[in-house]
Each structure stands twice: as C-alpha cells, then as structure tokens.
Write a structure and sequence with these properties.
Among the domains are: 2-102, Rossmann fold; 123-197, ATP-grasp fold, A domain (Dna Ligase, domain 1), CATH 3.30.1490; 327-409, ATP-grasp fold, B domain (D-amino Acid Aminotransferase, Chain A, domain 1, 2-Layer Sandwich), CATH 3.30.470. A hairpin with a 2-residue loop joins strand 9 (203-211) and strand 10. The protein has helices at residues 14-24, 54-67, 81-90, 98-105, 107-116, 133-137, 163-177, 180-186, 245-262, 306-314, 348-352, 390-402; strands at 2-6, 27-32, 46-48, 72-75, 124-128, 144-147, 158-160, 192-197, 203-211, 214-223, 236-239, 267-276, 279-286, 328-334, 340-346, 357-362, 369-370, 381-387, 405-408. It is α+β, with helices and mostly antiparallel strands. Helix 2 (54-67) crosses helix 3. The protein is built from 12 helices and 19 strands. The strands form 5 sheets. The chain has a 4-stranded parallel sheet with strand order 3-2-1-4, sandwiched between helices.
Length: 409
C-alpha cells in the first residue's frame, strides 16, 4: 500500500507525515516542487512535480503509478491541495472535486460560494490591482481588512481604518504580490486584492475531518491573544475551547455548512471563525489540516497523531478513536519581533524547564534572515504545553516565551 505525499520543500510537516506512514507500515512517495538529489537512485520514493500545474502533475503521476501503484494522495498544505485533487481524480481514487479544492484555496471564490449558500461571513469586495486604490478606498466601509487571495499564515493581511490606511495597505500588499516567487505561485490570483469588513470579536480555529460530508470535530482552539490588527500574527492556540457549549455548537454548524458550500465532503479541514455579537462568522476555511508544527499538540485515542488520522482516512483504513485526549494543550508560534539576521537564541533550556512545557522547537537557524509579518510567512519556532486546564496550558506558554531571548542583527 503506497501513499503519495505532496510536500513543498519549505514545509514544516515532512517528518510528522513520514513518521505517521512508518507507524502505519505503508510505503511513501514524497513529491516536491524541487528535485531530490537521491531521486535517480530511489525512483519509487521521490517525485518532482510542479504544483502550480495540477493537470501536468496528474499526467506525470499517472505514468509513475503504472510502475508504482498509488492507493492515496495527500496534499499537506495550501500549495498542494488542488494538485492533490487532480492527481487523485486521474488515478480514480477518492478525492475532493477540483472545483472544491480551488474554492478552498482561493479566497475570492470561497467568499462567493459562502455568500451563495448564505453562510455567515464578513462583507467583501474583490478588486483587481489595476484599479485605482484611491477610488477603491472610497467604495468600502471602515474598518476593513485587505489581503491577498491565495497566501497563508496571515501573510499580507492588513487592517485599514481610513482611506489613507487603505492606500498604504494596498501598496504594501502589491509589493508582496510583485515578488517573483509569489507572482509565479499565484498566477492570475496575484493580480487581485480582497477587501473584507473587519469583524470584531475573539477568534477560534477548528480542526475537522470530513467523511461523506459529515464533519467530525477533532479540536477547537481558542486564540487568546486579540487579533485586532493592523497585522494579524497568530501566536497562541489552546484547546479545548473556553467558549460556551452553545457557541461551540454554533461554530461546528457554521463550519460544516461552509465546507459543504465549497463542495468539500472528505478529508481534513482547517477553519477560522470570529465570534461576533451576531454569532460565528467564517474568516477562512481550507481543505487541509493545521499548518506549521502545530499538529504536534494534538493526540487522539491511544496517542494517535493528526497525521496518522489523515493517512488512515485517505487510505480508507479504520479510525478507531478520533477523540482528543482529555488534558488541555497549547502551542505558541513564536513570532518574529523585527527584521534582521538571527545571531543568537538564549533561554531554550530555561523555557523547557517551565512546568507544563512539553517541547521547545526553534525552527529558524542562526544566520537566517528573518522577515516579520505582513511580508514574512515563517516563525522563529514553536512552544508546546499541556495542562489540566486551558488556563494552565496558556500560562506555561507565556512563561516559557518570556524566558527566551532572540538576538537579531
């Protein structure tokens, strides 16, 4: 039994998916957008694909599968979900429809599909970058949020409170979209800017798994730090949620409605919602699981990882227990405080010694040039905690982060 994993070379998640496959005892082929130096000597284990060309990728894999049959295809992040749908469809495997994968990938298409299905969401306008930003600034209500239609990790997401701020945000996002790599990845989507009404209220993240359109909630995270702008850097996720049970039920209902509105009926989803006075609003829903190393905070049944659940689902293997462990857990995506070159990281052992801290991972390396939001899309690293209550898990993360020092030149 072989699974094809579509993993960009910049992904944080390679080792976790490979470990899940090892635990299941299945063969793995890793497809990336850059060739591996060992691909020629291990052709069944590695494959080079252009994720921006889903049909071309599907044709290449179809040829590969005549020699090495593939039983499941898994795209691990936003850049691979559309290609994964095209490949699985070409191989005759269960898959997300390509139109649904695109709707979950492109924020403009997502917003339109949610509007047609009357899913609660912020008001929105999709602009071409060819339009005059000063005129566009006069056509929206304030405060509002400007964002690219295809980037992840809050990259390029900026709040504007007035026309002057709108024009400044438009210019800053345009400079991000003009980057050669970004423009190549986005294609025509790099010529758009989405503007949404700013929705006040706390934010939550929902991790779920769809099977035949039925949504199983794997975890609901609170984001205890206020995300009010001007940028929207995510830091702490804590589960279980401290929202009232009635609110949690509403969140689940809205997320399920949103997934079906996009045409998603199988596989993992990651949804982000704002809790407003009118109820939950969908900020985003993606046809993939949580990003970064954040999945390491989740354990199910007898210690099963999120990646193993995803592979079991993709391979149509039984899932015996998808209930999350009873203890509270939290993860902090360590933010980049300013631009520069990382010269030193101090206090790692002190952070690890904080009661409740399970692990400290510094993913940035010394000598690396750091770029903060809204231009950047990476983190300094990750902190992981567990506790008897969400409050204790959150407190451990804050205490550990306070013991770390980053020298940036």
């Amino acid at each position: 039994m072989r699974v094809l994993l579509l993993i960009p070379t910049t992904s944080y998640r390679t080792s976790d998916f490979l470990e899940a496959a090892r635990r299941l005892g299945v063969d793995v082929t890793v497809a990336s957008e850059e060739p591996s130096t060992v691909e020629a000597w291990h052709p069944e284990g590695f494959l080079t694909l252009d994720f921006s060309d889903p049909q071309g990728s599907a044709e290449r894999v179809a040829g590969f599968a005549t020699r090495f049959p593939v039983q499941a295809v898994v795209g691990v992040d936003d850049d691979t979900t559309v290609a994964a749908a095209a490949i699985a469809g070409a191989l005759g495997l269960p898959h997300v429809p390509i139109a649904a994968a695109i709707a979950a990938r492109h924020k403009g298409t997502m917003r339109q599909a949610l509007a047609e299905a009357a899913v609660p969401q912020p008001g929105f306008r999709l602009f071409s970058r060819e339009e005059d930003p000063e005129r566009a600034a006069g056509e929206v209500a304030y405060p509002c949020v400007l964002k690219p239609t295809f980037l992840a990790a809050s990259r390029g997401v900026i709040r504007a409170d007035d026309p002057r701020g709108f024009a400044a945000a438009w210019k800053r996002i345009s400079e991000i979209l003009d980057d050669t790599d970004v423009a190549r990845k986005g294609g025509p989507w790099a010529e758009e800017i989405l503007v949404e009404e700013y929705a006040p209220g706390p934010e939550v993240a929902l991790e779920g798994l769809l099977r035949d359109g039925d949504l199983s909630i794997l975890a609901l995270f609170d984001k205890p730090d206020p995300l009010e702008g001007p940028f929207f850097e995510e830091t702490i996720y804590v589960t279980p949620s401290r929202q009232p049970e009635s609110t949690q039920r509403s969140i689940a209902q809205v997320a399920s409605h949103a997934a079906l509105a996009l045409g998603l009926r199988r596989g993992p989803i990651h949804a982000e919602l704002r809790i407003t006075q009118a109820g939950p609003l969908v900020i985003e829903i993606a046809g993939r699981s949580i990003g970064g190393l954040c999945s390491r905070v989740l354990r199910f049944g007898a210690g099963t990882s999120l990646e193993e659940l995803i592979l079991r689902d993709a391979l149509s293997l039984p899932i015996f227990d998808s209930s999350r462990e009873s203890r509270a857990a939290g993860v902090m995506m360590i933010p980049i405080p300013r631009a520069g070159v990382l010269e030193e990281v101090a206090g790692i052992e002190e952070a690890r010694a904080v009661p409740g801290i399970e692990d400290v991972v510094v993913s940035a390396h010394l000598g690396q040039r750091l770029v903060p939001l809204p231009e950047g899309a990476r983190y300094l690293g990750f902190l992981f905690s567990r506790g008897e209550t969400p409050e204790s898990a959150e407190a451990a993360l804050r205490q550990a982060h306070g013991k770390m020092k980053f020298r940036i030149r």
